[in-house]
Amino acid sequence: MAIELQNNESFMEHTNQEVMEKGYDANNLDDDGHEKRSGTMLTATAHIITAVIGSGVLSLAWALAQLGWIAGPAALMAFSGITYFTSTLLTEGYRSPDPITGKRNHTYMEVVKANLGGRKFKLCGLAQYGNVVGATIGYIITSSISMVAVKRSNCFHKNGHQVECDTKNYPFIIIFAAFQIFLSQIPNFHELSWLSILAAVMSFTYSSIGVGLSIAKIAEKGHHVRTSLTGVTVGIDVSSADKVWRTFQALGNIAFAYTFSSILVEIQDTLKSSPPESKVMKKASLLAVLTTTSFYMICGCVGYAAFGNNAPGNFLTGFGFYEPFWLIDFGNVCVVVHLIGAYQVFGQPIFGFVEYQCSQRWPESKFIKNEYAIKIPFLKKPYYVNFFRLVWRTTYVILTTVIALIFPFFNDFVGLVGALSFWPLTVYFPIEIHIARAKIKKYSSRWTWLKLLCWACLIVSIIAAAGCIQGLAADVKTYHPF
């Protein structure tokens, strides 16, 4: 369960009470009072792939078009290497002080609090939950764009490619939100494995469809598009100012494509205690990062080769492809199914955080505490309804939906989320935790290069955020919601 602990004793008391109320066998509990975890390297890898290969992969052809054949693949490899390296540092903080037998830190915030103290703990909370909110909004936007693409694809097939087939996306945003209101009532991460595995399969499917369509486009007779070593050309494709801003935005899009550090600890908290969680999580992170980077290189490079400097912001919905329309439809349906799962993977940490905080603040409230068992046919265990959970999670889905309705700008929004979250969550806190745990001496060679990596990533994040803010500001001037 993704929750912040004020102290271990209060949490154990809360957990043991919940265990007795729900009738769990005390012999089937982990060392922290939770019901025994059953996660494996496979489920952890599926969770990571579900979180990582999402809306980010759809923008990579556009990102490479801005950066070109040299800087584009180099940026992908750099972000990949940094993400894996810092994820291995973060996994060690799950238990403290000993990484194998120490007390569990159930969330990213707890890891920071246990290793770095209270002030950085609060900054981590702001960064982590800000990233979670931004990512879930981005998933709503992306899903609605894919649903719109399905409707437009059928319209083009029926009426011809010259027809505008203009379709509003806000009805589809509302449809996606309705699904999330229902799924958000799943109590915690431990019951999401089936959804993550399904979503991971969908991500492979639509990525493969995009690559296949791109290859087919490259193989078309007479196909010729303009690409270059440095991406879009000043004076031909864009102005010099636009080139700079788009380059910054592209870095933000690539950073977003590797976003999973904010939920890494929560995923690690689903693993069985043997073998040690840190060892399993390192293997899962390596497998997931290698898998996603391979997909990213293929999707980005093949997509850029297919579309050239005019690559659309979303290569499955930008209508560089029109036929076969049914395959394009299927690919976009896979995007929607995947992001339904990804929304929940990212949303669970903030759901649990608010629920635990409220239960500690108002411990006598029946509205917050009481669980009501409902027997559902074909399920062994009853489903527990909590009215506070019902109201709070529904409210969260509605709020993120409203923001998505107001700012439905794909590339700018996902780039901004990536830029703002990459440095603090993927780079700064893991490095600081490692320095504290390993007691690395200040100004030593290891301390120096870790700090240089940290500052270099901060500069990249700042310029990426600046580019995305400029893009959002330009889009808002011409956009009329509803």
UniProtKB/TrEMBL annotation:
Compartment annotation: Cell membrane
Molecular function in Gene Ontology: symporter activity
Main location, first listed in the record: membrane
Residues annotated as transmembrane: 44-63, 70-90, 129-150, 170-186, 192-216, 284-305, 325-346, 390-407, 413-431, 452-473
GO cellular component terms attached to this protein's record: plasma membrane
Keyword line: Amino-acid transport, Cell membrane, Membrane, Symport, Transmembrane, Transmembrane helix, Transport
All residue ranges annotated as the Amino acid transporter transmembrane domain in the record: 38-472
This protein's name: Amino acid transporter transmembrane domain-containing protein
